[in-house]
């Protein structure tokens, strides 16, 4: 009798286990993405590449929710972040400061994590509590703004410059933050700052026609309302023979400038992907320290030669990359 009862129990257990379906269903992930300005889109592309290397393959186990047509203003970013939360994304990946602020607000009261890159001064911007212990749902890769250092490089590359034009719109909050250090450095560098505040691409381009001789143009890291005119600005500057330098623009932007002192988009995206992987596997954003992106000097010798600008061998030797 006992053997018969044990046999029945065994059969029931087998039926229960068979009913559980055997092989577990593979986990899938949904990642929401917001990119602040068009020239930062390569960050997202590199992020996807590195995520695939880590096992998150688009179209297989990972879906990205990304609308490239979101208007570049805070209200639109806020609305998009809310939409992604409503879509129940497993993680939000934000590129830029304004998009990160929107995501931080949207995920409050949820357990949806946010990984950002790049953000300048995330503690000052109120994105995280501290670099070591971000707190809340947000962490990522910061950029320590080095626009003042970029300006020093610009003057080593074009030592004869006497005037500087830094197109910026005071309505862009990140631009205002970045310019504080740049403006503080100018008096010690022996160069005169030209009137540079503009409110539109048209105004920015119009200034080019009035620049005095021995002027250099210096583009800072983020001018959201002016970015659409970057290519036109670079083209016209070259036509006029005016050296144009960039600070913390994407590596691809180096094709349009004489030099660019910037972080590597591919590397910061790789850092962001590693952080996203850790968090999707259970790490808490609040305890995942903010990482810092590394800077590189990129010189476009071809563009310099096109406007007759000679760059010393000493400076060239210190460049991370030379485009010939």
Relevant terms:
2 domains; Rossmann fold; 324 residues; elongated; six-stranded parallel β-sheet; 38% helix; alpha/beta; 13 strands
CATH fourth-tier homologous superfamily of the largest domain:
Response regulator
Strand content: 15-25%
Structural class by sheet pairing and helices: alpha/beta
Query: Do you know the CATH architecture of the largest domain?
Result: 3-Layer(aba) Sandwich
Rg = 25 Å
Spatial order of the strands forming the largest sheet: 7-6-8-9-10-12-13
Shape: elongated
- Number of alpha- plus pi-helical segments: 11
Task: Please estimate the helix content.
Answer: 25-40%
The succession of helices and strands, N to C, reads HEHEHEHEEHEHEHEHEEHEEHHE
Model regions low in confidence, pLDDT < 50 over at least 5 residues: 12-19
SSE layout and pairing:
Elements: H1 2-19, E1 29-35, H2 41-53, E2 62-66, H3 74-86, E3 91-95, H4 97-106, E4 114-120, E5 138-143, H5 147-157, E6 163-165, H6 173-185, E7 192-193, H7 201-208, E8 215-219, H8 230-240, E9 244-247, E10 259-263, H9 265-280, E11 291-292, E12 295-300, H10 301-306, H11 313-316, E13 321-323
